[in-house]
Write a structure and sequence with these properties.
It comes from Diaphorobacter ruginosibacter. The protein is α+β, with helices and mostly antiparallel strands. The protein has helices at residues 9-41, 45-55, 58-74, 81-94, 101-115, 159-169, 179-194, 253-260, 275-285, 291-297, 301-317, 361-373, 398-407, 439-449, 454-476, 522-526, 545-548, 552-562, 568-579, and strands at 148-151, 204-208, 212-214, 217-226, 229-239, 245-247, 251-252, 324-325, 334-338, 344-349, 383-392, 412-415, 424-434, 437-438, 479-480, 489-491, 497-499, 506-507, 512-513, 538-539. The structure holds adenosine-5'-triphosphate.
C-alpha cells in the first residue's frame, strides 16, 4: 500500500539528489555525444574512437557518485521503507516534465538497488515497470530542434532540390565536394526504389534532425513515405580524399538498417534531447528490432539492459521450455546455455580451465570488456553483462544444473532468494549474447545435405568466404582473434559471420607474426614437435591451415579467396599500418550501395 501523505521531509531531498545525479549524467552524456559532430568535421578519428570508448564508463561513475552522496548526506541505507516509498513518489513528480524519464527511472533503479536489500526490488520501491509515459514527449525549450524534419518534393524531379535543402540544413561545418552531383545520384537511387509505386498526396521524406556518428562516418537516418508504403533509408556522409564531404552510399529497407544498427557494431553518438522519440522513430524503420537493441545502439546501454531484462521476464512467463546446454562444441573457458524459444545465449566463466588455456576469470572479463569498448566492425557480437541473475529452478534441466555444479560451482546458488516459496537458480555473473548458428554446425549441415546440392554448395562457399572477410575486418580494426576455429564464429540470419569467443583475443599490434623457420638439420625436419623457440605473443599464420582446412571443398574455397591469411607478411603489414596511425574503413554496407 502506498502512503497517503508525503510526510517524510527527507524523502523529497533524497529524490531530488537522485534526479540531480541523473541530470548531471545525461548532461555529460549528451555533451560528449554532441561533440561527435565537431570531431567528424575536423576528422579527429582517434578522438572519435576514444570518446566512443570513454562514454561507456560515464553511467557507472555517476551512479557511484550518487550512492556516495545519498549515503553521506542522508544516511540513505538507514531510512525506513515508508520513506523509500515516498522517495519513489517524489521522484515520479520530478519526472512530470522530464525529457528523459525512462532513463531517469533506470538511474533510480541503479542507485536504489545498491542501497536497498534485494527483498525490496519490487514496484513499491523501484521501477520494475515504467511509471511515466514517453509518448508524445517533445522539447519545449526555445530553439530546440524537432526530433525529425519532413520535406515534400511533390514530384520525383523535385527530389534533388529537396535533398539539397535537407543536407544544407544539417549545418555541417565543412564543404561538400559536389553536393549537386551527390543529391542527383541519391535522387536517382530513391526514384529507382520507388519505381512502380504511385506518388500519393502524402509523399514525403522524414529525417531525424541530428546525424548519427560512428568512427569516420556521419549517417543521415530517415524514411520515405508514399501512400501506405514507408521505406527506411540512410545516407552515410564521409570525408573524400581532399577532406571534402561526400554522400557515400544509399541504404534502403529494413535489412540495410539492421546492418547499420547491428549488435556487432560500436554504439552511435547522437545528440538527443528526447531519446525515446528517436527510438520511436527508429522502430518504425526496424519494427523487428527490440527497443532494448535500439537504446543500446544509441549508447544508452543501461536502458538497453533494463528493457532486455523486462522482455526476458515477460518471455519466461509466456513460455514453458527449459534452459539447456547450448548446442555445439562445449567451450573450455565458457559454459554456455540457452532457452530454445529465446534467441540469446547465456555464458558464464568456468572456475577452472584445462591446459593449454592459461587465463584467469579476471583476464577473461578484461577481454570481454575490451570487445565492448572496441570498434566491433560488424564482426564481434556485443554482450550484456549481468550479475546475480535469478532463473526459476523448474525451468532448468538437471543436466544443466549438474554441468554448472561441475564447471562453475562458485557461480551457482540455488535458493528461495525472494522468499516467495519458489526455488531459484542464481548465477553470480553472466554474459548474454545474441544466439547465432555456430559456423561448424552450419558447415556440417551443408556437408550433410551433400555438396552435390547446389544450395548446400553455395551456402558452404559463402560461409567460408564470409569467414575470411570477418577475419580481415577484425584485422583492419587491430584485432587478432586468437582462436580462429570455425566453432568460434557464428552466422547471422543475413549470412554475416560474426566472432564470439573472446578469451584469446589480442590487439594485432601486440602480436609478432612470424614464418616457421627453416629446419637446420634432419632431426629438426623430421621432428613432430615444435623445435623452434616460441614467445608468448608469437603467431605463425602458415600453421593455421591444418586446423581449418581439413575438408577439401572448404580448402579450395578458402585458398581461392583468403590464402593471404596463411601468410605472416599479410598480418605483419597490417600491424605496421596500424602502428603508423592509419585507420582503415570498414563500411557497414556492401559496395553496390555506394553512390560514388
Ligand atoms: N553467440 C552464440 N550463439 C550460439 N552458440 C554460441 C554462442 N556463443 C557460444 N556458443 C556455443 O558455445 C560454445 C562455447 O562458446 P565459446 O567459444 O564462447 O567458449 P570458450 O570457452 O571461449 O571456447 P574455447 O574453448 O574455444 O576457448 C561455442 O563453440 C558454441 O557452440
Amino acid at each position: 500500500m502506498f502512503p497517503q501523505r508525503l510526510d517524510a521531509p527527507q524523502a523529497y531531498d533524497i529524490a531530488k539528489a537522485m534526479m540531480d545525479g541523473f541530470n548531471r549524467h545525461y548532461k555529460l552524456f549528451r555533451a560528449e555525444s554532441a561533440r561527435a559532430k565537431h570531431r567528424f568535421e575536423t576528422q579527429d578519428w582517434h578522438g572519435q574512437q576514444r570518446a566512443q570508448r570513454e562514454r561507456i564508463e560515464f553511467y557507472d561513475l555517476r551512479v557511484k557518485e550518487c550512492v556516495l552522496r545519498l549515503d553521506k548526506e542522508f544516511a540513505a541505507g538507514a531510512q525506513p521503507m515508508n520513506v523509500w516509498q515516498q522517495v519513489k513518489l517524489h521522484y515520479i513528480g520530478l519526472m512530470v516534465e522530464h525529457l528523459q524519464p525512462e532513463l531517469a527511472e533506470t538511474f533510480f533503479n541503479s542507485v536504489t538497488t545498491k542501497i536497498l536489500h534485494r527483498t525490496h526490488f519490487q514496484n513499491d520501491f523501484i521501477f520494475v515497470r515504467p511509471a511515466v509515459s514517453t509518448e508524445y514527449l517533445e522539447s519545449r525549450t526555445p530553439g530546440a530542434l524537432p526530433t525529425y524534419r519532413a520535406y515534400y518534393p511533390q514530384t520525383l524531379d523535385a527530389l534533388p532540390e529537396a535533398l539539397h535543402e535537407l543536407f544544407v540544413q544539417l549545418d555541417l561545418q565543412c564543404p561538400f565536394d559536389d553536393l549537386q552531383r551527390d543529391v542527383r545520384l541519391l535522387g536517382e537511387r530513391i526514384a529507382a526504389r520507388l519505381a512502380g509505386l504511385t506518388l500519393r498526396a502524402n509523399f514525403q521524406i522524414q529525417v531525424l534532425s541530428n546525424l548519427f556518428y560512428r568512427n569516420k562516418g556521419a549517417y543521415l537516418v530517415g524514411k520515405i513515405i508514399t501512400g501506405y508504403t514507408e521505406l527506411a533509408f540512410s545516407v552515410p556522409i564521409l570525408h573524400g580524399s581532399e577532406g571534402r564531404l561526400l554522400l557515400h552510399a544509399a541504404l534502403f529497407g529494413e535489412d540495410d538498417m539492421h546492418g547499420l544498427f547491428s549488435f556487432a557494431r560500436a554504439y552511435f553518438m547522437v545528440d538527443m534531447e528526447v531519446p525515446s522519440a528517436y527510438v520511436q522513430f527508429l522502430r518504425t524503420l526496424m519494427p523487428r528490432k527490440p527497443r532494448s537493441d535500439l537504446y543500446t545502439a544509441l549508447g544508452l546501454g543501461k536502458q538497453g539492459k533494463t528493457l532486455f531484462y523486462r522482455d526476458f521476464l515477460h518471455h519466461l512467463r509466456y513460455s514453458s521450455d527449459k534452459f539447456r546446454i547450448a548446442p555445439g562444441i562445449k567451450g573450455m573457458v565458457m559454459l554456455v546455455f540457452d532457452l530454445p524459444s529465446f534467441p540469446y545465449v547465456f555464458k558464464l566463466i568456468k572456475d577452472h580451465f584445462p591446459a593449454p588455456k592459461e587465463t584467469t576469470r579476471e583476464q577473461v572479463k578484461g577481454k570481454y570488456l575490451l570487445v565492448k569498448q572496441h570498434d566491433r566492425v560488424g564482426r564481434m557480437a556485443d554482450t550484456l553483462e549481468y550479475s546475480l541473475v535469478a532463473f526459476p529452478r523448474d525451468r532448468f534441466s538437471d543436466e544443466l544444473i549438474e554441468e554448472i555444479r561441475k564447471f562453475a560451482p562458485s557461480q551457482l546458488e540455488i535458493s528461495d532468494r525472494d522468499g516467495d516459496g519458489q526455488q531459484e537458480v542464481i548465477i553470480s555473473h553472466l554474459y548474454i549474447e545474441r544466439r547465432l548458428v555456430p559456423l561448424n554446425i552450419h558447415l556440417q549441415e551443408c556437408f550433410d545435405k551433400g555438396l552435390g546440392d547446389a544450395d548446400a554448395a553455395r551456402s558452404m562457399s559463402s560461409a567460408v568466404v564470409e569467414y575470411g572477410n570477418a577475419i580481415k575486418d577484425l584485422v583492419a580494426a587491430n584485432i587478432f582473434p586468437g582462436d580462429m576455429l570455425w566453432k568460434n564464429f557464428g552466422i547471422t540470419r543475413n549470412g554475416k559471420v560474426v566472432f564470439y569467443d573472446y578469451d584469446e583475443i589480442e590487439y594485432l599490434t601486440d602480436c609478432n607474426f612470424r614464418r616457421v623457420p627453416a629446419p637446420r638439420n634432419e632431426e629438426e625436419e623430421m621432428s613432430g614437435e615444435v623445435w623452434y623457440a616460441v614467445h608468448p605473443r608469437d603467431v605463425f599464420p602458415e600453421t593455421f591451415g591444418p586446423f581449418l582446412l581439413g575438408n577439401d571443398a572448404v580448402r579450395e574455397v578458402f585458398m581461392r579467396h583468403h590464402a593471404d591469411l596463411l601468410d605472416a607478411q599479410f598480418w605483419q603489414s597490417h600491424k605496421e599500418r596500424i602502428q603508423a596511425g592509419h585507420m582503415l574503413d570498414v563500411f557497414p554496407y556492401d559496395a553496390e550501395r555506394r553512390l560514388q
